[in-house]
Amino acid sequence: QVHLVESGGGVVQPGRSLRLSCAASGFTFSSYGMHWVRQTPGKGLEWVAVIWYDGSNEYYADSVKGRFTISRDNSKNTLYLQMNSLRAEDTAVYYCARALAVGGIGVDYWGQGILVTVSS
Amino acid sequence: DIVMTQTPLSSPVTLGQPASISCRSSQSLVHTDGNTYLSWLQQRPGQPPRLLIYKISNRFSGVPDRFSGSGAGTDFTLKISRVEAEDVGIYYCTQATQFPYTFGQGTKLEI
């Protein structure tokens, strides 16, 4: 079955960087677009970024554009999120999610999530 | 960005009775390809979101048939025909018609 496992979260100071990873299994990773979505108690669910199945295209939320970079290594079945210049408002649980198998627009499976806390 | 507005934000329900959640988008969710990319998610306490319904009314794999979705354009509804205890959680509508994908505020279903 589809399995997505995030790692790399933790506590980081404002202005510093962090890289999240998402290990995928149970499906042909290289055939699916992948997303990052974050969740906070205050702002709810917020879509962060998407990368095409082959890495040829990326889109970002305005709130992270220029600071975050989504990437993937299809040989390792792994999705990444490089987060630079972190701010307190980036504190959230970050989920990786797979693009919907039917048509590719939307998401279907979600990982368990990883907490990122930005604090001095 | 498309704003998704859910009502109610909290819904006390009785086991075995029906429940309904509404979602309205700030603009039409009809994609240029003719499809409407409106989905419903369920988030049980301590769990990640789980896809229930996609493209307005299609139940995802393993989702019980007591869940159904309907609507068109800007107005959508999730219905649970007979609420069970395991249905407790927060329900979100979400649109994928255009980037950025956006989500409703969530509706808390409480027994």
State the gist of this model:
Chain A is an all-beta fold and 120 residues long. Chain A has strands at 3-7, 10-12, 18-25, 34-40, 44-51, 58-60, 68-73, 78-83, 92-99, 107-110, 114-118.
Explain how this protein is built.
The complex is a heterodimer of chains A (120) and B (111). Chain A is mainly beta and 120 residues long. Chain A has strands spanning 3-7, 10-12, 18-25, 34-40, 44-51, 58-60, 68-73, 78-83, 92-99, 107-110, 114-118. In chain A, a hairpin with a 3-residue loop joins strand 4 (34-40) and strand 5 (44-51). Chain A is globular, with a radius of gyration of 13 Å. Chain A starts with a strand and ends with a strand. With 111 residues, chain B is mostly beta strands. In chain B, 0% of the residues lie in helices and 47% in strands. Chain B has no helices and eleven strands. In chain B, the strands form two sheets. In chain B, strands 2, 4, 5, 6, 9, 10 and 11 form a seven-stranded mixed β-sheet that branches. In chain B, a hairpin with a 6-residue loop joins strand 9 (89-95) and strand 10 (102-103). Chain B starts with a strand and ends with a strand. The relative contact order of chain B is 0.33.
